[in-house]
Structure formats: structure tokens, C-alpha cells
Specification:
421 residues; binds magnesium ion; globular; 17 strands; ATP-binding; binds adenosine-5'-diphosphate; membrane; sphingosine kinase activity
């Protein structure tokens, strides 16, 4: 049917959000220099939105008429995507809104999701402009797959949605302290790590988690019913974007990603396609954000299905749900965007400075777990709780500082959608 064919294959409309302050302050130049031409060549219409202040994107996305857009793409660091995701989850129609495909182009100094998405595409490691080109190319291909989000509760009852990490101790301190070196780009984390190592300290607190092995009985504390857990290690739940630009106007004819070209067929019209109508949500199912069925009240003790960590002296606690913590930190070798897992790492006190440095250096190639370090623990979990005892400190969510104090979190498998390779 010719008419339907044309309708389905109208070009996708992208809202391109650029944070001109991110990274070395060059995101806009990088966009005009490397991405604009690619999108033009591929006939992808986009509207450029340059953020003017913190939370600008969050407010904009909270109120936007999303029927006008087929994807929201963020050209910044991870911080701007954090804003966008929380803006979508603030909405009354969050259940529908959060299904708009999200894209990421590395324009910041902390580009963990961009590095992760590039890694999931099975491409060899890339940095800086090469990473940007790879992500731009993925955007033009238009494949979309599920993305897990983690719901984070703070002591003030505030709730956040996170796509990357929850950190306390060494990693959080480095992340925030190194912001003053933002002008040097991604290497800021290495500089911050060296500075923090010199003043290495111990952070006291209690940590508990719900391990994956001891998943709760299905009848009681199971996942929210509308989002069944996705299969770990699923290679490809994505499908093609049926836009007219995809197959034959590829801006990179060498196709260095070696992707199966079947993914790019024009005829594919599966539900994951970016222009497919998103499912209608009945009004009586509208609630303010998904139910965290695995989490008790933050004041209540954790259920006895949880594991309580004996140690209370830590150097770091890091919950991460993507493969990369930064462009050159391959923190979770097996992670997928939709593996339904929180990868929990902690390092207990007593580790020497050289041993900690070795872990971070090994992480570039994902080799830290093979270091045999007795202070490093790694668990796959569905939920966790952290209660700092040290009276002051830093907790970050997706690299952004949040209120310091008790915090708990649980995974929501595949509730968002991510543009990927
Ligand atoms: P980086 O990786 O360089 O830290 P981010 O995307 O994480 O880049 O952005 C850093 C912070 O800047 C985030 O907290 C984000 O909300 C905020 N932000 C977004 N737009 C602007 C702007 N126009 N001016 C200042 N800050 C902004
Ligand atoms: Mg940031």
C-alpha cells in the first residue's frame, strides 16, 4: 500500500538538546563541525535546542508536546540526559513519555553512556571525536533498544530516575572534585583520581542489597507487572527506524560497525521502530511513576531476603548499570543497557593506594576484577540501600550531586528506550 508506506517512512523529527557549557565548552562547535553535516546528508530533520541553564532541559521536556518528536537526542555529558529522563518521569503521562527514544552524543567531559552505547555496538574502543562520530552514525541508523532505569529514593522522600550510576565515597568525590578540571575533557577523572588518592580516606556506612540469586518469590515482591524483566545478555532487541534516510544515504559508507544490514531494511515495521505509534495508556492506569515493589520504607529495616554487608568501613560504593563509568573506565565487562541488573561494586577499607590505583588503571581494559584484590567486591543486585554514618560526604547519581544521607534504589528493567548501534 503506497500511501501507508509513505506515511510510515516520513523523516523522524529529532529534538537535539545541546549544552554549550558541557565538557570543554565545545559541544556546540562539535555539533556543527561533526554532526550537523551527517544529519543533513542523511535527511534527518532536527530542531536544535541550546540549553541556557541547569534544569532548562528538564523543564522543557516536562512540558513538551512529545507527539511532535520522534526522538530526544542529548549532546552533552551524562548530566543533561539525567535532566531529560527526570523531566520525562515528572510527567503525568510518564509511562508513555519515557518510551520516546533517547539518543546520546558525547559532548561533555563525562560521557559514560555514549562510551557504553558504543561498546554495546561491539565496536573497538573509541575516544573523543571518534566516539562522537560513532554515536552520530548510530543516530543516523536509528536502531532503538530497551534501557533499564533505576529508581533512587533519598531521605527527603525525593525520588530520582537514574540510567548510569549511584556512587558514594571515592568515586563520588572524584566525580565532583574533578569538575573543576572539566576544561581538560575526559582526562579529568584520571587527574581527580590521582588527587584523591593522595588524600585517600575511609567512609563509614551500612550497605545492604537484594542479590539477583535470591530473587523474591513471584507472588510477593516481584517487579511491577507492566515491565517484565528482560533477558540478560540479549544481543539485540532493537529494530530499524523506518525513515527514508536510513539505508542508502549512510554518512559512513565503510560501515565500520559491521552491523547486520538486515537491521536496516526499510520494510521492518516492528514495535521498536522509532516512528511507530507508542502504546496508548489508559487514563486510569496513570500514576506518578512506577511502583518500587522491592523497596521497603527507607526508615524500615531491609527484608530478610536482602544481604547486609558486614563491613562498615568503605573506600567506595558504586552501583552502575551500564558498561562504562567514563570513556576510559570499562567498569562492568558484561553489562548491557537492558540486562535488568544493578552491578554493585564496593571497596573496603584497608586497600593500599597502589592497589586502588591499580584497580582504576586496570579498569581501562575491564581488567580490575582479575586483579585478585581482596578489598574489591562485585555483586549483581536488583535493589540496594546505603546508609552513610560519616556525617558529611558526597553521593552522586549519574554524576550529579544529590542530597547526602540514606539512599535506596531498585531497578526497573527496560522502561526507557535508547538509540543504539
Ligand atoms: P559534563 O560531562 O561536562 O559534566 P553534563 O552534561 O554532565 O556535562 O552537564 C553538566 C551540568 O551542566 C549538568 O548538571 C547540567 O544539568 C548542567 N547544564 C545544562 N545546561 C547548562 C547550561 N546551559 N549552563 C550551565 N549548566 C548547564
Ligand atoms: Mg556531568
Amino acid at each position: 500500500d503506497g500511501v501507508a508506506y509513505m506515511e510510515v517512512r516520513r523523516p523522524c523529527r529529532i529534538m537535539m538538546l545541546v549544552n554549550p557549557q558541557s565538557g570543554r565548552g565545545q559541544a556546540l562547535q562539535l555539533f556543527t563541525g561533526h554532526i550537523q553535516g551527517m544529519l543533513t546528508e542523511a535527511s534527518v530533520p532536527y530542531t536544535l535546542v541550546i540549553t541556557e541553564h541547569q534544569n532548562h532541559a528538564r523543564e522543557l521536556v516536562r512540558k513538551a508536546d512529545l507527539s511532535q518528536w520522534d526522538a530526544l537526542v542529548i549532546m552533552s555529558g551524562d548530566g543533561l540526559l539525567f535532566e531529560v529522563i527526570n523531566g520525562l518521569m515528572d510527567r503525568e503521562d510518564w509511562q508513555e513519555a519515557i518510551q520516546i527514544p533517547l539518543g546520546i552524543l558525547p559532548g561533555g567531559s563525562g560521557n559514560a553512556l555514549a562510551a557504553s552505547v558504543h561498546h554495546y555496538s561491539q565496536s573497538p574502543p573509541a575516544w573523543n571525536e571518534e566516539l562522537l562520530l560513532s554515536c552520530g552514525f548510530m543516530l543516523c541508523k536509528g536502531l532503538v533498544g530497551p534501557l533499564d532505569l533505576v529508581s533512587v529514593h533519598l531521605a527527603s522522600k525525593q525520588r530520582l530516575f537514574s540510567f548510569l550510576s549511584l556512587a558514594w565515597g571515592f568515586v563520588a568525590d572524584v566525580d565532583i572534585e574533578s569538575e573543576k578540571y572539566r576544561h581538560v575533557g575526559a582526562i579529568r577523572f584520571l587527574m581527580g583520581t590521582l588527587v584523591r588518592l593522595a588524600s585517600l580516606r575511609v567512609y563509614q556506612g551500612r550497605l545492604a542489597y537484594l542479590p539477583v540469586k535470591e530473587a523474591p518469590k513471584l507472588s510477593k515482591g516481584s517487579f511491577t507487572t507492566n515491565h517484565p524483566p528482560s533477558t540478560p545478555q540479549h544481543p539485540s532487541l532493537c529494530s530499524s527506524l523506518p525513515c527514508q534516510f536510513i539505508p542508502n544515504t549512510s554518512p559512513n559508507p565503510s560501515s565500520r560497525h559491521g552491523t547486520n544490514s538486515n537491521h536496516n531494511t526499510r520494510t521492518n515495521s516492528s514495535n521498536n521502530a522509532i516512528t511507530t505509534k507508542r502504546p496508548q495508556i489508559e487514563s486510569d492506569t496513570k500514576t506518578r511513576a512506577p511502583v518500587d515493589s522491592l523497596l521497603p520504607d527507607l526508615e524500615q529495616p531491609v527484608p530478610d531476603t536482602w544481604t547486609v554487608v558486614k563491613e562498615e568501613d568503605f573506600v567506595l560504593v558504586l552501583a552502575i548499570y551500564q558498561s562504562h563509568l567514563a570513556e576510559d573506565l570499562w567498569t562492568v565487562p558484561g553489562a548491557m543497557a537492558d540486562d535488568g541488573l544493578i552491578h554493585l561494586f564496593y571497596v573496603t577499607a584497608g586497600i593500599s593506594r597502589p592497589a586502588l590505583l591499580r584497580l582504576f588503571l586496570a579498569m581501562e581494559k575491564g581488567g580490575h576484577l582479575a586483579c585478585g584484590c581482596p578489598h574489591l567486591v562485585y555483586e549483581k543486585v536488583k535493589a540496594l540501600r546505603l546508609e552513610p554514618i560519616t556525617p558529611q560526604g558526597m553521593i552522586t547519581v549519574d554524576g550529579e550531586v544529590v542530597e547526602y544521607g540514606p539512599v535506596q534504589a531498585q531497578i526497573h528493567p527496560g522502561i526507557a528506550r535508547l538509540m543504539r548501534g
